[in-house]
UniProtKB/TrEMBL annotation:
SUPFAM superfamilies: HAD-like. This is Haloacid dehalogenase. It holds the Pfam family Hydrolase. GO terms for biological process: DNA repair. CDD domains: HAD_like. It comes from Geobacter pickeringii. It comes from the Bacteria. GO terms for cellular component: cytosol. GO terms for molecular function: phosphoglycolate phosphatase activity.
Amino acid sequence: MIIDWNQIDTVLLDMDGTLLDRHFDDHFWLEHVPKRYAAKNGISLPDAKALLYSQFRSQERTLNWTDLDYWSDRLGLDIPLLKLEVEHLIAVHPGVVEFLLFLRQNGKSAWLVTNAHGKTLTLKMRKTRLGPYFTGIVSAHDIGLPKEENAFWGKLREKVPYDPARTLLGEDSETNLGTAQNYGIRFLIYVSRFSSAIQPVPSACFPSINHFTELIPHQDACRTESPK
């Protein structure tokens, strides 16, 4: 995919599904949590899944959706502790480090902008060591709105000094790309290979990639090195 990087100053990147393999999150919420909930409450796994999936859907597109404290209280489980049980599944998508190095070497401001809860961020940044590659990290919980809200992108500018006309956003959520588009963010990229467990399907609405190396001009391909 050809991107005119001379027109971009700032790159906003989602975390789960975009930089990190969403297989971890899907397995955790759809399999691991129901398994632990069923054992704690003495019910069958299918019954636990039916009950929990309904509760999960009720909080979609809200901050509660990613609030670990909310789900710990709601389900009577220590959600951060349960995440540690399967943290070995946390993985960085291929090409992410190369892309982040490309952004740094070309003077772009790179921000991690995620709906993820602070406790999730702490776990995943410790596990992946991606933190030093970013100019900064912002959670929607710091903003007070999820990215599914159009108003999120305006409030984000209180923390990230970006010009929408000179900004690229990478996301695995077409909904979030849509709200960013409504706000005026110009360069929008959909990550279709959000999980290693699925067959990627390109978006019908936004330019799509499987890996971020597709956005690196060939002549600027960089070698991998550790962040300073």
